[in-house]
């Protein structure tokens, strides 16, 4: 299973700069029915927050503002809620509440259910339920302004949340046609049947109509979304592709999705970028431990790119419809 998760994951916690004086942070556990609680990180505007390099919980930090827009976030396979913490921080600084989930069964510590993709949208809906109805500060949120961000497996998750219905049975013919692609070699090495649609529950793909806009970044399994499967998608989409993404080769992922969506997305292709360049810049220590994830192509400045990337996300979400 670890081999499979390599196609869409970050296996380390990405460190980020110190929290700004106007951002609060908390890590919480939320109930998830009969299953173990889900771990969630929440970043929010605050007038008295302070923090340290490792994102420790800020005691007593109050939330600042009312009718704040919410962005819920879904990480890649084998990641965790803080895989995109620089983006969450930037959104909080721009006046959003950013809530990111660790998807149980598909995290750094537990990849036992990495291919049970239908579990992710259900957990994502649970996150929205909690934030709008149970979070102690939910009265500061505008329930009519909920956006979603997803990277890799998280991009798949967000597409389902906005109404997409994937056909995972397309994985077998896809891998028969492209046996050298990362997904297909990983499945083969792990001795996993490529018919990923065989065990999908009948009620797996339930949309969340509360989500009004979505940022979809390097989405995994994008080939599984046909025009028929995307016809119910009405939310505006901002779609991102790394031009040098060898994990999800062009044109079978983002380009196929762009062509299949019923309304043209706002489409960004990042020159000289690889799949993992959408993750936060790594510290020097992490760069030594995780070369594949932390190393960019020569001439690509990941830190400078993330300043632009995060600004584009904030701009897009600011314009989300009610």
Describe the structure.
- It is a single chain.
- The chain starts with a helix and ends with a helix.
- Strands 1-2-4-3-5-6-7-8 form an eight-stranded mixed beta sheet, sandwiched between helices.
- Helix content is 27%, strand content 19%.
- Helix 2 (85-93) packs across helix 10 (302-318).
- Mean pLDDT is 89; it is low at 1-21 and 51-57.
- The protein is built from ten helices and eight strands.
- The chain has helices at 2-5, 85-93, 119-133, 153-161, 171-177, 182-189, 254-260, 284-289, 291-294, 302-318, and strands at 23-32, 35-45, 68-74, 97-101, 141-151, 211-217, 237-242, 266-270.
- The chain has one domain (2-317): 3-Layer(aba) Sandwich (Rossmann fold), CATH 3.40.50.1820.
- With 322 residues, the chain is an alpha/beta fold.
Provide a brief overview of the structure.
The chain is 27% helix and 19% strand.
Count of strand segments? 8
CATH superfamily: Alpha/Beta hydrolase fold, catalytic domain
Helical segment tally?
Answer: 10
Distance between the amino and carboxyl termini: 40 Å
Largest sheet: 8 strands, mixed
What percentage of residues falls in helices of 4 or more residues?
25-40%
Counted up, domains total 1
Shape designation: globular
pLDDT averaged residue by residue = 89
Query: What structural class do helix, strand and pairing data support?
Result: alpha/beta
Q: Bin the strand percentage.
A: 15-25%
């Amino acid at each position: 299973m670890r081999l499979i998760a390599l196609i869409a994951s970050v296996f380390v916690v990405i460190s980020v700069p110190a929290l700004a004086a106007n951002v609060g942070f908390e890590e919480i556990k939320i109930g998830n029915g009969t299953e173990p609680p889900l771990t969630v990180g929440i970043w929010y505007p605050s007038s008295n927050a302070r923090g340290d390099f490792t994102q420790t919980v800020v005691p007593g930090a109050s939330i600042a503002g009312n009718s704040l827009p919410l962005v819920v976030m879904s990480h890649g396979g084998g990641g965790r809620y803080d895989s995109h913490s620089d983006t969450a921080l930037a959104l909080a600084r721009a006046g959003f509440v950013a809530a990111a989930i660790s998807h149980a069964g598909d995290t750094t510590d537990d990849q036992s259910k990495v291919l049970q993709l239908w579990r992710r949208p259900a957990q994502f809906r649970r996150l929205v339920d909690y934030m709008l109805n149970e979070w102690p500060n939910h009265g500061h949120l505008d329930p009519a302004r909920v956006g979603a961000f997803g990277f890799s497996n998280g991009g798949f998750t967000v597409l389902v949340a906005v109404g997409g219905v994937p056909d995972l049975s397309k994985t077998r013919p896809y891998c028969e046609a492209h046996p050298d692609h990362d997904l297909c070699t990983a499945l083969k090495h792990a001795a996993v049947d490529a018919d990923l649609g065989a065990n999908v529950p009948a009620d797996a793909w339930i949309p969340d109509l509360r989500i009004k806009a979505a940022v979809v970044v390097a989405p995994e399994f994008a080939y599984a979304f046909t025009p028929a499967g995307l016809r119910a998608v009405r939310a505006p989409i901002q779609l991102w592709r790394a031009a040098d993404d060898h994990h999800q080769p062009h044109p079978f992922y983002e380009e196929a999705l762009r062509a299949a969506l019923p309304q043209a997305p706002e489409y960004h292709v990042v020159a000289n970028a690889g799949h993992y360049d959408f993750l936060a810049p790594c510290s020097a220590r992490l760069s030594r431990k995780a070369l594949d994830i932390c190393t960019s192509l020569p001439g690509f400045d990941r830190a400078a790119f993330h300043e632009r990337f995060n600004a584009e996300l904030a701009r897009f979400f600011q314009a989300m419809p009610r």
